[in-house]
Structures are given as structure tokens and as C-alpha cells.
Amino acid sequence: MTVEDERVVLARNGDRAAFRRLVEAETRPLYAVAARITRDAALAEDAVQEALFNAWRHLRDFDGRANFKTWLHRITVNAALEQLRRRSGREQTMADAVPDDDEREDFLATRADELPGPEQLAAGGEIGSQVQTQLDRMTHLERSAFVLRHHEGQSLEEICSVLSINVSACKQAIFRAVRKLRSALEPLR
């Protein structure tokens, strides 16, 4: 039995400290996926908080067929989608990504001659702006499927399970998202 399995057993028996140790290392990745789906820092925080609460509340339902982290990830994606449903009438904005300590150190350690020039920065900013605009214009399903596939690297089967759709609908959502991004970026070539 792994340490994680032991913590799951302890947590299922009501040990809050064991549950906290289980989820501590996962909160940053959970926030990252929730932020990519919701495109809003406050919604992502709410989604993670709701996901952790739901995981604690339904821990007895965890049957161990999937890895605990995968189960927790799925709950978080569902919570993020629920946050979007609750605020579907409001405009969604992307949260500014705050780099963690390792990213900051890596950036500062980069030599000045390796940094992009002004033209590259301008082009990158324009591309980033177009990508953000297109992600905002996508449906929740398209954006979620795209993020899970291309940012999280999940398989079609995993995405179908998380989004409760069939493989055909999943492929179509990803295809539509990619097509929208390509058409938006084509003039920038």
C-alpha cells in the first residue's frame, strides 16, 4: 500500500489531516486547470474550494479504480464548469498568471542575449491577444475540451469522462476550437 493509499484510507475514516496532506500538493495544479477553464481568478479559486469540499464530502464514494489525483482533477474540472454555468451571462476574463518561485528564478537566470527582441515581443503579444480573444469566444465545451487536450494532455477518453460527452462530441469540440484558433492566427503568419 502506498503512502497515498494509506492517506486515502485515513481520510475516508475522517482524518482531516490526512486529507489535507493528500490535497496540499495538488492545489496549485488544480487552480491552474480551473483558471484555464474559467478564465477568471476568482472563479478558479471558487472552483478549487468547491472541488476540495466536494472531494471531502464524497470521499467515501472514491472506490480507488482511478488514481486519487485523477479523481480530484475530475471533480475540479466539473466544479470549474459549474462556476461557468452559474456566471454564464457575465463576461469572462483571464486571470493574470502569477509565476511561481521556480519560474521567476528561471527567468532571472536567463542570459540577456537569449531574451526576445522587440519585434518578437510585439509579435508574441499580438498572437497572445488573438489566442485570448478566440478562447473567450469559444463555447464552454470547446474551451474546456481544448484546454484538457492541449494544455493538460489528457486523452480523449479522459476528456469524455470529465465532460460527460461521447468521443464524437469531444473530437468535434476540439476540432472546432482548433479551427477557430487557426483562422484567427492565419493573418499573423
From TrEMBL:
* A Pfam family this chain is assigned to: Sigma70_r2
The UniProt record lists the keyword Transcription regulation: yes
Q: Which Gene3D superfamilies match?
A: 1.10.1740.10, Winged helix-like DNA-binding domain superfamily/Winged helix DNA-binding domain
Q: Tell me the keywords, alphabetical order.
A: DNA-binding, Sigma factor, Transcription, Transcription regulation
Q: Which GO terms describe its biological process?
A: DNA-templated transcription initiation
Which residue range or ranges hold the RNA polymerase sigma factor 70 region 4 type domain? Answer: 130-181
Cited InterPro entries: RNA_pol_sigma-70-like, RNA_pol_sigma-70_dom, RNA_pol_sigma70_r2, RNA_pol_sigma70_r4_t2, RNA_pol_sigma_r2, RNA_pol_sigma_r3/r4-like, WH-like_DNA-bd_sf
| Keyword Transcription set for record | yes
Q: Which residues are in the RNA polymerase sigma-70 region domain?
A: 22-88
The GO terms describing molecular function are: DNA binding; sigma factor activity
**NCBIfam families referenced in this protein's UniProt entry, alphabetically:** sigma70-ECF (TIGR02937)
UniProt record similarity statement: Belongs to the sigma-70 factor family. ECF subfamily.
Q: What is this protein called?
A: RNA polymerase sigma-70 factor (ECF subfamily)
Task: Give the organism, scientific name.
Answer: Tahibacter aquaticus
